[in-house]
Amino acid sequence: MDPSTLRPAVESLIFSSELPLKTEVIREILDEPDQKKIETVLEELNQDYQDSRHGFELVHVADGYQFRTKSGYAEWIRKLRRTKLPRLSRSAMEVLAIVAYKQPVVRAEVEAVRGVDSASAIKTLLERKLVRILGRKDVPGRPMVYGTTREFLHSFGLTNLSDLPTLREVEELHKEDPPSASQPE
Asked: What is the pLDDT of residue 116?
């Protein structure tokens, strides 16, 4: 592909895609045999959009690339949309965290950690496509095995699961900012 059209073509594909676009997909669509050329263009675009003159940036997330509004402008975007971001209940967040850190995991393992029934929270996470069924465990009863999805990575701005904070980091944050007496745990 002509170098003068490669950059705008890559930029337009990423701009037009609702989901993060993988490098391989860009290469296939543009029929570009040299993956290194695509990677170079992505690096250049990333550098250009770091400039403070732009209200958005190129982000590497969920094994792909996506344009996102810079966090400093989130307030105005919320006003534009006039909607609240969908929230997860505390129980759904607990289950999601357990699945993210212990996957692949079965419901009984989640419930052993939480100490309560988690069927409703798992159902909510499946409906929101944050968790998916990976298969069935080869034990009596053949329970379903759960893991996180690409949508989970996308929603939380993660490239992969190794971007999750370690449990030690989470504990240190909790020590620094303990819940106040007026907030239920």
From this structure: 95
DSSP state of 59: E
Longest dimension (CA), the chain: 63
Q: Is 41 helix (H, G, I), strand (E, B) or coil?
A: helix
- Strands of the chain (E only): list them: 56-61, 64-69, 105-106, 131-136, 144-148
**How many CB atoms within 10 Å of residue 122?**
22
Question: What count of Cα atoms within 13 Å lies in the side-chain half-sphere of residue 164?
Answer: 18
- Domains of the chain (ranges; CATH) run 3-79 (1.10.10.10), 90-176 (1.10.10.10)
What is the pLDDT, as a whole number, of residue 111? 95
Series of mean pLDDT values for 10-residue runs along the chain (185 residues): 88 92 94 92 92 90 90 83 71 94 95 94 94 94 94 86 82 66 46
In angstroms, the CA 97 to CA 80 distance is 31
3-class DSSP state of 7: helix
**Residue located via tokens 């997330």:** 61
Predicted confidence at residue 84, as pLDDT, reads: 52
